[in-house]
Specification:
Elements: H1 2-14, H2 20-33, H3 39-51, H4 56-99, H5 103-131, H6 135-141, H7 150-166, H8 170-184
Length: about 180
């Protein structure tokens, strides 16, 4: 189990450029494929990882590792997810200073940024499918109103409006949404 955790999180860390949000689609695929998390647990873990201190990737790796193999699993998973980035940064800093003005290198980074935006957008869509959209209920009733969890949609819209209008620290919105969730669910 420990080897599987290390190799899985090493692969996730190796093949995702752009941080924790960019790695969510790959992490979701692996966690569900290996039965480490259900889709609902994955969505909850994203919420918890975003609201606790530290990078989302480390938080999620630590949680999954702990769930699967206790404290040693948490440590192994965390090391697995950060080791590729650490090694890549060592290599890149060694050689990039010689090539940072090279047009090919600049073009590579433009492409990587576009890929990261796509990965983050994929993560947003996946989370929306879990937390806002209820395809199962819609397929049973064929009622368009059953496709969306109205409470979740209203909470999402109100939080989006508040974030855009008031620009407060995210912890305020997280706490407020958590309280509202407890009250209306």
């Amino acid at each position: 189990m420990l080897t599987k955790l290390l190799l899985t999180f090493f692969k996730i860390g190796l093949f995702t450029y752009g941080g924790g949000l960019a790695m969510l689609p790959l992490l979701q695929e692996q966690a569900i494929e290996y039965g480490w998390l259900t889709e609902e647990q994955f969505a909850n873990m994203i919420a918890i990882s975003q609201s606790t201190p530290g990078p989302i990737a480390i938080n999620m790796a630590t949680f999954v590792g702990y769930n699967q193999a206790g404290i040693i699993g948490a440590i192994i998973s965390s090391i697995g997810v950060i080791l590729p980035g650490f090694l890549i940064i060592l290599i890149v800093t060694k050689f990039l200073s010689h090539f940072n003005e090279n047009p090919v290198v600049k073009a590579i980074f433009v492409g990587l940024r576009a890929a990261v935006v796509g990965l983050i957008f994929t993560a947003v869509i996946n989370i929306a499918m879990i937390s806002i959209i209820d395809v199962d209920l819609f397929s049973q009733t064929n009622n368009i109103l059953d496709l969306f969890d109205i409470r979740s949609v209203l909470l999402f819209i109100s939080m989006l409006f508040a974030v855009i209008k008031y620009k407060k620290h995210p912890i305020y919105y997280i706490i407020f949404a958590g309280i509202i969730g407890v009250i209306i669910w």
